[in-house]
Design goal:
Elements (H helix, E strand, L loop, with lengths): L27 H23 L2 H21 L2
Helix pairs in contact: 1-2
C-alpha cells in the first residue's frame, strides 16, 4: 500500500503554470556596479601600495560603503 504524499512544512503550494520567481535577481546594471566596485577596490589597494593614501582611501571607501551596497540593493 502506497503512503500518501505529505507536503514539507513551511512551503506554500503554487498554482500550476505560474512561473517560479527567483528570490535574488541581478540585472546588467547590478553587474556593472559590482564590476565598478571591484575596480575601485583594486585601484584603491594599488594606490595604497604605491604610497598615495588620500586618493586610495577615497576609492576604498567609495567601493566598500557606496558601490557594493548600491549594486546589491538597486533593482
Amino acid at each position: 500500500m502506497a503512503e500518501p504524499r505529505v507536503k514539507p512544512p513551511g512551503r506554500r503550494s503554487r498554482k500550476a503554470g505560474t512561473p517560479v520567481q527567483p528570490s535574488l535577481r541581478f540585472h546588467r546594471k547590478n553587474l556593472y556596479l559590482l564590476a565598478l566596485a571591484t575596480a575601485s577596490l583594486v585601484f584603491g589597494y594599488a594606490l595604497l601600495a604605491a604610497g598615495n593614501t588620500h586618493f586610495a582611501a577615497l576609492l576604498l571607501v567609495a567601493g566598500y560603503l557606496v558601490l557594493f551596497p548600491v549594486a546589491l540593493l538597486i533593482k
